[in-house]
Design goal:
The chain is α+β, with helices and mostly antiparallel strands. The chain has helices spanning about 25-30, 40, 55-70, 70-80; strands at about 5-10, 15-20, 45-55. The protein has a single domain (about 5-95), classed as 3-Layer(aba) Sandwich (GIY-YIG endonuclease). The model has no long low-confidence stretch (mean pLDDT about 95).
Length: about 100
């Protein structure tokens, strides 16, 4: 089973949330609909700005844990390396 690590935010350089899932499209929709955790709902974290695919959910979970321990500046640099304009990647998920 594959896994995904993702970051959602409320605006460029805003509040960040690092998550992991096996169904990225569904999970991104849940963030947009505010159907999940209080933290993401409270801060309006709906903009999907970073996505990373992994061969297994176990690898994705380990990567998520590693990312959560990194500094905010490092996470921002990671996002800006692949998405410098902080575009919402949600629409790209609808294949």
């Amino acid at each position: 089973m594959s896994g995904w690590v993702y970051i959602v935010t409320n605006r460029p350089r805003g509040t960040l949330y690092v998550g992991v899932t096996s169904n990225l499209a569904k999970r991104a929709w849940e963030h947009r609909a505010a159907n999940i955790e209080e933290f993401t709902s409270r801060y309006g974290l709906k903009r999907l700005v970073f996505v990373e695919a992994h061969d297994s959910i176990v690898a994705a979970i380990q990567r998520e844990k590693n990312l959560k321990h990194l500094s905010r500046d490092w996470k921002i640099a990671l996002i800006e390396a692949s998405n410098p304009d902080w575009k919402d990647l949600y629409e790209q998920l609808m294949w």
